[in-house]
Specification:
The protein is mainly alpha-helical and about 240 residues long. It folds into two domains: about 140 residues, no CATH class; about 100 residues, no CATH class. It contains twelve helices and two strands. It has a two-stranded antiparallel ribbon. A hairpin with a 2-residue loop joins β1 and β2. α10 runs antiparallel to α11. The N and C termini lie far apart (about 90 Å).
């Protein structure tokens, strides 16, 4: 006997281009606004935008639970963990210290993804699901490069994000790789390792050269007369 596949097993995975597109336009998808009128606990565009702004640095499980409960959606922590395990939402992207130890931090768009799953499971009918799969097939046939997928999760270009990662220890590019390549875990880990290797080379080689360059500049001096002369020449050129 053929095993019945649940609706949730067929949902586009977290981090995929199809999922990102659907989450970004969910309030305009068929039946969404009607679902709100019928009493389904779905968020409006403004509510989702406000949540992402309030928790732009990420949110804890307690904050996720608070936002969902405030909407009247009671979501057990066991279900939350199952969603993570099944790849339907992101795993923790970091931790923060508390008086009792530390707590996990999840991406700012976690509520948006849970909201999409609620819509997908409770509002979408068979015809809508079929249309979604046609969209998935179309996107999969077109394909999208890893580069495009990662940049779609960044607020700036990849080069600028890597620069911030190397110089300021910002993890935006790591998070973007985690999200974009979530369906390809082996490749995700491979590229995260490559990023770490770049960081190691930067710290051991380039950063030392920059420090040497800076030290040489600090140890060589212009005389006061040379400084005055340089400033005068620059002023004459402007005139």
């Amino acid at each position: 006997m053929k095993k019945k596949v649940s609706k949730l097993e067929l949902i586009p995975p977290y981090g995929s281009s199809v999922r990102n597109t659907l989450v970004s336009v969910v309030t305009e998808l068929p039946g969404y606004k009607e679902g709100i009128k019928k009493g389904f606990r779905l968020f409006t565009d403004k509510e989702l935008a406000d949540i992402k702004e309030r928790y732009k640095d990420g949110l804890t499980w307690e904050e996720i639970d608070k936002e969902l409960s405030g909407k009247g959606l009671f979501f057990k922590k066991a279900n939350f963990r199952k969603y993570i395990q099944d790849g339907n939402i992101s795993k923790a992207i970091g931790y923060k210290k508390t008086k009792n130890g530390r707590v996990a931090i999840f991406p700012a768009d976690t509520i948006s993804h849970i909201n999409f799953i609620q819509y997908y499971c409770k509002v979408m009918d068979g015809e809508h699901v079929d249309n979604i799969f046609k969209l998935i097939e179309s996107v999969e046939m077109q394909g999208i490069s890893y580069f495009e997928a990662i940049e779609s999760n960044l607020d700036e270009n990849l080069y600028a994000s890597i620069f911030r990662y190397l110089c300021y220890d910002e993890d935006n590019v790591e998070v973007a790789i985690e999200k974009a390549l979530a369906p390809r875990q082996k490749d995700r880990d491979k590229f995260l390792k490559m990023l770490k290797d770049i960081d190691n080379k930067f710290q051991k080689i380039i950063l030392k050269d920059i420090s040497k360059f800076k030290s040489l500049l600090e140890n060589h001096h212009l005389t006061v007369l040379e400084t005055i002369s340089e400033n005068k020449e620059g002023s004459d050129e402007q005139n």
